[in-house]
Structure formats: C-alpha cells, structure tokens
Design a protein that fits this description.
6 helices, disordered C terminus, five-stranded antiparallel β-sheet, alpha+beta, 31% helix
C-alpha cells in the first residue's frame, strides 16, 4: 500500500467518524417522548404538518401534550385522550366495545350536542374515536389511543425550557417587530369586528333573510348561512355581534328540527319570533343589572375599572383605567397616591381635564373608592362574638 493510499484511507475514517458523531448529537436533540405545554389559547392540532390540513381539535394555554418528534417547525404529538367533543351520529359507524370510525369527510366536532355549539375541530373519513355517551342523535367521544396529530412548534414549550418561543410565522424568517404599543380605543367601546368578519356576516345575513321570507319553513335552505355564521363566531370577540349570530343560529336549529318533524307539525314561526324576543330581553336585562350594581357600589364615581400604572411617560398622566382588557381613561392626581391602588378594581371620583388633548379622556382624580366589603351573615357574626367572648378575662370574685 502506497503512502498516498494510506493517507486517503485515514482522511476517510476521520470524516466518517465526524459524521457519525454529528448524527448522534442531532438525534439526541430530538424531543422524542418529552412533555410539552401549550403557551397560547385556541392552538390548532392538525392532521398533518401544514396549516391547510384538517384541524382535529383546539388546545388552550396550559394543556399538556406528549411530543413524539419534530419536523420543519411542527411537533408530532399524541392526540390528548382527555379532549371530549360531540359528533353527529349519522357520520359515525359504531363498532364493538364503544369503538367507532368516521364514515364521511370534514365532519364537524363540536363543544356540545347540537348545531348551535362551537366547532372545535373536523374529522375525516377513517378517523378512529371512542364513544362515551349518546344524546339526541349526537355522540360524545374522545380520540382513540395512539392517534397522532401535529401542532406548530412556536406554540408549545417543552419541559426544561425557560419560556415560550417567540411566535414567528411557520416557514418564514423571523421578523423583528417594533416595541408593542398599547391600543387606544374609545372609552367603554367594544372591540370592532374586522372587515373580513363583517363581510362574512353580511353574506350570511343576506341568505338568512332571503330564506326566512319563504312562506313554507320546509323550503328554507339555511345550511350555507349556518356555516358562515359559525365562521363569524370563530373570528370575532365582539359580544354584540356574537349575540346576534347566536339568535340566528337558534332560529336555524329550530327550522332544522321542523323539517325533520312529521308533516303534521305546526308552523313554529311565531315560536321562533317569541324566542328571539326572549333572548333580546334577557340580554338587555343582564346589562341593566350590571349597570345598576356598579351604580350602587360606586354612586359618586364617574368611571369604574382596574387601576394600573401607565407603561409610558405622559406628564402629568401617571395611571390608567382598564376595562375588559382595554384602556378607557387616563389618570393623574396632585393630592392622592394612586400607586397604592394599582391592580385593584376601583371607582374614580374627579373631573375630566379638557385642557389635556389626549386620544382618551384624562381625569384629575380627587377620590378613589374601593368596593364595599361583603356584609357578614348572622351566623358569621354569632361565631365572631362567641370567639371574642371566649378571649375576655373573667372577673376575680371577692374573698
């Protein structure tokens, strides 16, 4: 063997050893068999490792997932057995020992036994499930043991990691974002739905009103409107819009029952109108009760909310009022130390300072009111008096 040949063999052995070490190190970094914790609400668990695949279920902050492998920004996880949902019985083929198989594509899995409940995921043909309960044509189920799904890596923190990963779009390079700026919204206003959600709602409403004008309820075709309304429910946090959509879905559900009922059933049009009125009245009544309770607890206050320190410097402004996670008022006071009330729900006495031109009203605080303590019941008062009596010293009797 020549010197040149021996040298080539030596270099080849070194390269093979280096590649073997790197392969072993890479495998050691794989998160196989680790426990993960979801760090964001409404995280999709999908059937495949891309955002176009079927969403099997929703995971929420704090949920535990067992991570099996990592691929291209996705974790392969075991489908949680404790996730319980409902599916229509007509799309499931039941087997022995409560085992069943889905026999249709894109079947909705819902939070409850009814079309009006929120869609939590979708099941495709062939998905195995375990039946727990049957109710009015709906099956309560959980995923079969050993089934797997995929969740985006950025939404899961593995055990031993210091904190959640920064949320970067899957398949795109990280984007350096500017420092967060607190949203400025009109005082006491709800978050407005985005234009796309309103466009979906208007499409659904157009179909809804066109169909309900038909004289015969059996001719109503509201399936497309129902799907659009459900998309609106998933895409908005505006409570007024959600209340309207829920009323529409209740009408659609009743119309569906009417079509499935015998032909001798009476027209429930009046019942539907009365039910919608009842829902409106109940919604109005609860809002009035809340307003009256706030007025009773804080009769002299002009605004009520959680008092927090302002993150940025806006002299003379030092604090803010937060309600429903939105900043509604700015505060300052030359006489009261507002720092002792930080993080508490308080009522603010004072007047709006119109000389300060800010996007939100600025209040010069003259008084801060805490909610009154809950009055003690008669039993609690009796126990307190007995305890105090037991602690009193007895008088010494004369000899």
């Amino acid at each position: 063997m020549t010197r040149k040949t021996r040298r080539s063999l030596f270099i080849g052995c070194l390269a093979a050893g280096f590649l073997g070490c790197m392969t072993g190190w890479t495998r050691a970094q794989a998160p196989q068999g680790k426990e993960g914790e979801v760090v964001k609400d409404s995280v999709s668990i999908r059937a495949d490792k891309n955002t176009d695949s079927v969403r099997l279920a929703l995971a929420f902050t704090g949920d535990k997932l067992r991570v099996l492998a990592e691929t291209a920004g996705w974790y392969e996880v075991e489908l949680p057995r404790d996730y319980v949902m409902w599916v229509s019985k007509e799309f499931v083929a039941a087997g022995p020992d409560k085992e069943a198989v889905v026999n249709a594509d894109n079947v909705s899995a819902r939070a409850g036994a009814g079309m009006e409940f929120e869609t939590m995921g979708h099941l495709n043909r062939g998905r195995r499930i375990e039946i727990l309960e049957e109710k009015a044509g709906w099956l309560k189920f959980k995923f079969a043991a050993g089934d797997k799904g995929y969740v985006a890596k950025q939404f899961v923190r593995l055990e031993g990691e210091a904190g959640p990963r920064p949320a970067t779009p899957i398949g795109k390079p990280p984007v350096v974002k500017p420092p967060p700026v607190e949203p400025v919204k009109p005082p006491e206003a709800e978050a407005e739905p985005d234009p796309k959600t309103m466009e979906t709602f208007n499409r659904a409403d157009k179909i809804y009103w066109k169909e309900v004008q038909k004289k015969n309820i059996a001719d109503w075709d509201l399936e497309e409107a129902r799907k659009l309304y459900l998309n609106v429910m998933e895409g908005t946090r505006n409570q007024s819009l959600k209340g309207t959509v829920l009323r529409r879905l209740a009408v659609i559900a009743l119309a569906q029952r009417y079509r499935e009922a015998p032909s001798t059933a009476s027209d429930p049009r009046e019942v539907l109108k009365e039910r919608e009125k009842e829902i409106d009245a109940e919604y109005t009544r609860k809002r009035q009760i809340l307003a009256e309770e706030i007025k009773r607890l804080y009769p002299t206050c002009i605004v009520v909310g959680r008092l927090e320190k302002l993150a940025t410097t806006l002299p003379p402004i030092t604090h803010k009022i937060v309600k429903d996670e939105h900043m509604t008022h700015l505060l300052y006071s030359p006489t009261i130390d507002l720092t002792i009330y930080e993080g508490k729900t308080v009522g603010i006495e004072g007047e709006v300072d119109n000389t300060l031109k800010w996007p939100l009203p600025a209040i010069k605080v003259t008084g801060v009111v805490l909610a009154p303590r809950k009055p003690e019941s008669s039993e609690e008062k009796g126990e307190k008096q007995e305890g105090e009596a037991g602690k009193q010293p007895t008088e010494k009797q004369p000899d």
